[in-house]
Write a structure and sequence with these properties.
Chains A, B: This is Transcriptional regulator. Chains A, B: It holds the Pfam family CBS. Chains A, B: Keywords: CBS domain. 2 copies of one chain form a homodimer. With 214 residues, chain A is of the alpha/beta class. Chain A has 2 domains: 57 residues, Arc Repressor Mutant, subunit A; 135 residues, CBS-domain (Roll). The first copy, chain A, has a 4-stranded mixed β-sheet. Chain A is elongated.
């Protein structure tokens, strides 16, 4: 919702931002206007959430910036509603199997799982490329030897919000996070239920920017 | 700016959205209220930009949704202000050189250039992995043999907005776009001046969501 403020309303905001809390009388004085003249402007600024009024204290600045709306919005969007389907490989598979799986599924990262889909680790294109240019045969190296292993894997749950998930991607410099259901927090037994990747974020970004309802 | 609408204001919006243009009298009738009672609500909705009023026509819906603010914001942010530094390799380099460059620079994509930094193509981790598991020696295959070649490379310029750039990433299913300066549009002579990647988008996303001014 873009509000078009009048020049006077902007002046009022500026005064309150710099000098608040400040009474209506004092604002009127600064603008050489009567309190009655200002009343509609103050009512609108208050109802629109720019200002807050407290009895016997006065007005203070409470306006939200566009960036704050973004922040609120992104914190309401949950990983479970935006995650991609999981792409997993058994910890008994070879590096060669993992490379084939990545091409077949067209993904850049795989979750490596034990029995019952329990997360054992993750493996990326970068990890595989490292093996592929090495001396070893990709068909003889098990993925479990080159993967990032639990408990060092950064994960998210479906209940996490997309802002925090995106922050984990940036802060840990990874392209993908397994979305997990926690079966046993103490023993780090996580079931893999999806992926949250930079592609996921880019799709949300485009969706949000497309002027459609979300 | 988040505006908190009263229940009655939301009812009014809904009526105007469905039946506008509609006069104040007609809205009042629908709500079993007097025109005078509604006046402050209509004034606020109009000043806040939700409704527009035209003399002798009535009120019609003009409100912007949060998603529209997003869209506007993202269209104001330009690629040149957010792009990453270019990482390039000569078209005379080998696949092995490209793999080494990717590890050294820790990037997933390289721009392949001719003399004077003119874009010849792009190469991804996926392209390199394909060669690495093949029969050929990575040291004997030139990158120019396996890269995506101009004019098939999707590019953006610094003047493009980040929304359109992100959309190109999604629609073309690529992880990275070379940011270029167009030297000769007809002959597709582009100088590489940066990168715009899913990592770039994820960083903007986190920045926008961080409740800070942007």
């Amino acid at each position: 919702m873009a509000i078009e403020l009048s020049a006077r309303q902007q002046q009022i905001l500026e005064i309150v931002r710099l000098e608040g809390p400040i009474t209506g009388e004092q604002i009127a004085e600064k603008l050489n206007l009567t309190r009655a003249t200002l009343r509609p402007d103050l009512a609108i600024l208050t109802m629109a959430g720019f200002l807050e009024a407290r009895p016997r204290v006065g007005y203070f600045y409470a306006g939200k910036k566009t960036s704050e709306i973004f922040g609120e919005q992104l914190r309401k969007m949950l990983v479970k509603d935006h995650k991609a389907v999981p792409v997993v490989i058994s910890e008994n598979a070879t590096v060669y199997d993992a490379i084939v799986a990545m091409f077949v599924e067209d993904v850049g990262n795989l979750s490596v799982v034990k029995d019952h889909g329990i997360l054992a680790g993750v493996i990326s294109r970068k990890d595989l490329l490292k093996v592929a240019i090495g001396k070893q045969e990709t068909q003889s190296v098990p993925v479990s030897l080159v993967m990032t292993r639990m408990p060092n894997v950064i994960t998210v749950t479906g209940e996490d919000n997309v802002y925090n998930a995106a922050r984990k991607l940036v802060e840990n410099a990874v392209d993908s996070l397994p979305v997990v259901k926690v079966l046993d927090a103490e023993r780090k037994q996580y079931e893999v239920i999806g992926r949250f990747t930079k592609t996921t974020v880019t799709k949300i970004f485009v969706e949000l920017g497309s002027n459609r309802e979300i």
